[in-house]
Write a structure and sequence with these properties.
Oligomer: single chain
Number of helices: 3
Order of helices and strands: HHH
Keywords: Membrane, Transmembrane, Transmembrane helix
Strand content: under 5%
Structural class: mainly alpha
Radius of gyration: 20 Å
Largest sheet: none
Length: 61
């Protein structure tokens, strides 16, 4: 349990530090993330049949 306790303590400390640091959360970043997400969804929708066919043809040994 000491390892788990130390890990939880580190995670809590990290989350506390990140909660007070909002320098990266700007409107510009939100707009970029939304645009890139829309682009990813569009590409996925366009190439869905090829992606599904490739996934079905994979054989794991």
């Amino acid at each position: 349990m000491p390892l788990l306790h130390r890990m939880l303590h580190r995670v809590r400390a990290l989350l506390r530090r990140l909660a007070g640091d909002d320098r990266g959360v700007t409107t510009e970043y939100v707009i970029w993330i939304a645009g890139l997400s829309a682009l990813a969804l569009a590409v996925l929708e366009i190439f869905r049949p090829e992606i599904v066919a490739a996934a079905k043809s994979v054989v794991l040994k």
